[in-house]
Design goal:
single chain; 229 residues; alpha+beta; Type Iii Antifreeze Protein Isoform Hplc 12; 2 domains; two-stranded antiparallel ribbon; 10 strands; 29% strand
Length: 229
């Protein structure tokens, strides 16, 4: 009799009902918290990247002392252009293609491989007729500089002013300026090409820029010791 009464009591005890909507809500909250923590951790992940330790001028040959490291979190295109700590030694010896301000990130387009101004050289910019310049003339090409005096006159003469000069820079856009000698009738579309020339030739070239017409002749690269350009 007692056993039957105990069984009836057990059957009469109702189990608590679980609200499935509440359970699903708790699961969603837990997932959101875990995801938020993961994103927060990723946001805190930084990596050492190369920056300029001081002002770096265009054309400057970059030295190790010009560079420093800082922690940064980069994304997208900037991440692919930045230079990491493992590559810092590869930056040394490159020329700066433009000004890099102190503390600024050093990116791959900042690193040029063109000519560097030597201790006995100067960079001189010469105006040349835009339609007379090889359209693919680039930094590092080598040219001969020709000078024509007294253009249009019987005594006009063309001669070699500089036999070989590396191109330091080429203007991307031409502009309307006066040709040497100040002849307004000779104004035309010109482009500026900057050449590296011996310091001893600076006076002659400057005189020709002001008083004569200049022409550039693209030269083949000089052969190396092995006979290859």
């Amino acid at each position: 009799m007692a056993a039957g009464t105990s069984g009836r009591r057990l059957r009469s005890i109702a189990l608590p009902r679980v609200d499935m909507r509440l359970l699903a809500g708790l699961v969603l909250v837990a997932v959101a918290v875990v995801g938020g923590l993961s994103l927060w951790r990723q946001a805190q992940i930084t990596a050492p990247v190369v920056v300029a330790a001081r002002e770096i001028a265009p054309g400057h040959v970059i030295e190790r002392g010009d560079l420093a490291l800082t922690q940064a979190r980069l994304e997208g295109l900037l991440a692919s252009l930045a230079i990491g700590q493992a590559e810092i030694s590869s930056v040394v010896g490159h020329t700066a293609s433009g000004a890099i301000h102190a503390g600024a990130l050093v990116v791959r387009p900042d690193l040029g491989t063109g000519p560097v101004i030597g201790p006995d050289q100067v960079a001189v910019t010469v105006p040349v007729k835009a339609d007379a310049v090889y359209p693919r003339l680039r930094r590092g090409d080598e040219v001969a500089l020709m000078v024509t005096s007294d253009k249009g006159k019987p005594q006009s003469l063309t001669a070699v002013l500089i036999e070989r000069a590396p191109v330091f820079d080429v203007a991307l856009e031409s502009s309307r300026v006066s040709l040497g000698g100040g002849d307004a009738a000779a104004d035309g579309r010109l482009t500026n090409v900057t050449l590296l020339i011996p310091r001893s030739e600076a006076e002659r070239v400057a005189h020709a820029v002001v008083n004569a017409e200049l022409t550039l002749l693209l030269l083949a690269p000089e052969p190396t010791a092995g006979g290859q350009p």
